[in-house]
Amino acid sequence: MFQKVLIANRGEIALRVLRACKELGIATVAVHSTADANAMHVRLADESVCIGPPPARDSYLHIPSIVAACEITGADAVHPGYGFLSENARFARILESHKIAFIGPSAHHIEIMGDKIMAKKTALELGIPCVPGSAGGVASEAEAKKVAKDIGYPVLIKAASGGGGRGMKVAKSESEIAIAFSTARSEAKAAFGDDAVYIEKYLGKPRHIEVQVIGDGKGNAIHLGTRDCSLQRRHQKILEEAPASTIAIERRMEIGEICAAAMRKLQYSGAGTIEFLYENGEFYFIEMNTRLQVEHPVTERITNMDIVYEQIRVAGGEPLSLTQDEITYFGHAIECRINAEDAETFAPSPGTITYYHPAGGVGVRVDSSVYQGYKIPPYYDSLIGKLIVHGRTRDECLMRLRRALDEFIVDGVKTTLPLFRRLIDEPAIKTADYDIHWLEAWLEAGRKKG
Ligand code: MV4
Questions:
Q1: Residue 124 falls within a domain, yes or no?
Q2: 311 confidence band (pLDDT: 50, 70, 90)
Q3: Residue 179 within a domain
Q4: Residue ending a domain, choose from 201, 231, 246
Q5: Among 53, 115, 319, 382, which is 20 to 30 Å from 123 by CA?
Q6: In testing the pocket of ligand 1, which one of 277, 287, 435 has its CB within 8 Å of the most ligand atoms?
Q7: Ligand 1 close to Cβ of residue 67 (< 6 A)
Q8: Residue 119 has what pLDDT?
């Protein structure tokens, strides 16, 4: 096992990883920008190294500084958390060349899944159901028209290097292909430096369902069931649930098994998430994330697993601690992402937290790195913390969420807590009757009413 892990991240996820290392008896190194000198992950780590000025590209994304921090401290592994360098194949390769372990999948698997065309080809070969569409990239308008005619309108033109919805254009009929094709291409070129695009049937009202997987890189892999992450705004998830309880358990287990079998065949190593759109009773693969995700705690809560512990184990060459048969599911969990943002405009609200009282009690977990007196810097994402609640049933979980939201106090900055307090009274939330567009429509309707 590793002697010393360097945590190449900040905020709540740096603390999450630090806690797992502590439980394993592994020493920890925090890295931080000058803006984060007073951050909790720096205080709680055994050692810390300042790696640069506030902008992420000069600190948390600056590979030479992070490698230097490893060499100075003698860290033998790096956990990248999520975001930043977590899906950077080049970073994984550079660490390898310095004999430092990357706690994550192989650079090869990161690369495959980073290219959405290659990811989809791989998924198809592995028997994962995909959205009908082009076999690979689409190079011309004429080819786009041909594929669209075959699969039927509406279609969606997507960037191969995409993510976050950039470079995505819908065409409702052949007359819209020319504009959709050229704008998708130029947006993709501008955003990712790569104008490769592909085509899929456009699904109008899907849910976003994902499957958590973990592999040991030697052909053993398990799934930990589903999450429903449909409640999102501008591709930012707001609230996540586990399991995806509106889907019959047999269907959920079936897709889980398909994903686990695929990861065994791939010899995938580490934690991953296979993302699907779910519409009219069918799962359609869209992407795979080769990292730990923000919403992993809802899965941990219903399976009693520690996903970060498993990540560290398999990166250190040990087997998974459980087999698929040993995974059990209990109850329902919901996570709310509490951001330092105006609950109506979503404008960031950095500043000093003058009073902080997190919720607690039965079935409540708060993953956060803030404290009373902490000054939220303006340079990074606005996540203050995650409120994760559990109940034996979804109804009990919602009841407990109401109670926890009423307890939670964050003063000094604006937060999205008021949004959640309004949201959970909605009938569509009580019955889980929502798709990926529901939240934005609800927010829009709320703005009109004032
Ligand atoms: C789609 C889709 C509808 N049909 N693909 C958005 C970004 C990328 N992760 C995939 N995305 C979508 N792909 C087909 N064939 C709708 C979306 C989409 C979406 C997906 C998941 C979560 C939120 C979303 C919000 C808008 C659009």
A1: no
A2: very high
A3: yes
A4: 201
A5: 319
A6: 277
A7: no
A8: 97
